Amino acid sequence: MKLSARRRLTKLAMVVAACTITLSACGLTTPPGKSGSSNGGAEVIVGYGDIDTLDPTQFKTNTATLVVGNVYGTLFAQKFQAKDGVLVGTAEYAPSLAESANYSADGKLLTITLKPGLKFADGSPLTAADVVYTLQRSLSDVGYTGIFASYLRFTNGASGVRAASDTTVEIQTSGVSPLLRKFLSFQTFGILSKAAAEKGSTKKWATDYFAKGGVSSGPYKIEARSEGSSITLVKNPEYTVANLADAPAKVTIQNQPNAEQAYLALKSGSIDIDLSVSPDLAAQAADNRDLKVYKAATGDLVYLGMNQTTPALKDVRVRQAISHLVPYRALREKVMAGFAGPAYGPDPYPMNGTLDGSGTKQAYDTDPAAAAALLRQAGVSGLSLKMTVQASDVTAVKSATFVQSALGEGGITVKVDKLSDADYQSAVGDGTTQLFIGSWHSWGEDPIYQLNFLLRTGQYTNYARYSSKQVDGLLDAAMKLSGDDERYALGKQAQQIAIDEAPWAFMFTRDMITLTRQNVGGLTKPDDLFPRFQYLTLN
């Protein structure tokens, strides 16, 4: 799933695993009067955005998604490993609310066993009936999360999920899913209280009840909320699957209208963590001795899409020429102030199964001479194109200026069309763009999952209208496999074909950036890029 950095997700952008999000990890500090004598008594104040709905299955703002990820527990949870001062998510997903998950010998039945004695924050028991309710709700048409059923290999959707006992869930499957633990760690599958939902709402799936926040099953619960202003979370004493003794006692998320205001609040000490930071402000913060700048490489890909329904862009040589004209280094250094990495194809570093294991490779070099030769071979001159960008996406708008100039120097005239969020989504969805700047980050960072959504023929989120029978065939084959090594090998073949055929210019990957006060530790970078508050520490 993914969302575009620091702004409200639109339905299309997030459909899918997070489709365009760029978030940062979180931290903690101890300004005077904000902490107790130990980390377990600390109060942390985070600066971010506003909250709309808190329903796990609905499209929502980044801040709302951050809250959901800390309030609802999941059957599995990602493990972390320290790297350059950040706890980075690994490829291992361990049981959390679940105790085990086992397939039958033929792979047709999945049995999930819960840990004994689980409770919701209100003290009521958390049982298999709640897990069944959650899975059935998530796989229904109540939101976008039903798309995960095929990846989980649930054969009969919601009807194939049942409670065999208070602690046992049985699910009909078509085979072993290599993504099971990873996907069931997604906050969209956070376990919900069936009894609370039925008591709190008369609507199907209690959408009105969950929009305001349900009973917590995770490490934190909602203590108070002031709409448009703030939300306060406190530790959930009934959450026993992890030791929360050293976790902050309270986390308040304040709505900061813009990045500049959040940065000023951080400098003044009125907030401890800034999740709204822009690359320019992060660069400024590097010289401030009261602040820390945390960054980590991510697979959050920013690309220049080339719609192949546009006559000139049907020629691969024109697309390759444009790819050779993009000023990659300038984009990373001037637009992103150095908080970006090169992108080698549609599954960039540090994604699983990437072709670039070091984070140093660029799919195309900036080479105007090579571009000119390709345009001559294609018999193209005097080409004029329109580039569509989302006006609210500062990164896209800045990038468009550099790309427009570079393509102009290469003989391609580009007009930049800045659209509102709704108009932009309509344009890319309807296929009425020529060039467009987009971004994508997949929760779980699985290469086959990402390629399926972005480059499979006919996929709605394949905004470039790219079509390759060879890529589709590789993805079809990979979807049937259970071993990651085999899946990734096929994915790498598909990635290289996409690089060669250039449906996009792969511009850069955005780093996760977080600013904090100086004495902050325990920042996490999970695959979905939403920080987990329980790991925060005071240094």
Describe this protein's structure:
By secondary structure, this protein is of the alpha+beta class. It folds into three domains: 163 residues, 3-Layer(aba) Sandwich (D-Maltodextrin-Binding Protein, domain 2); 103 residues, Dipeptide-binding Protein, Domain 1 (Dipeptide-binding Protein, domain 1); 212 residues, Dipeptide-binding Protein, domain 3 (Roll), CATH 3.10.105.10. It is 29% helix and 23% strand. The protein is built from 17 helices and 20 strands. Strands 1, 8, 9, 10, 11, 12, 13, 14, 15, 16 and 17 form an eleven-stranded mixed beta sheet that branches. Strands 4-5-7-6 form a four-stranded antiparallel beta sheet, with helices on one face. β14, α13 and β15 form a beta-alpha-beta unit. The protein starts with 10 loop residues before the first helix and ends with a strand.
CATH topology of the largest domain: Dipeptide-binding Protein, domain 3
User: What oligomeric state is this?
Assistant: single chain
Task: Determine the fraction of residues in helical runs and give it as a percent range.
Answer: 25-40%
Distance between the termini: 33 Å
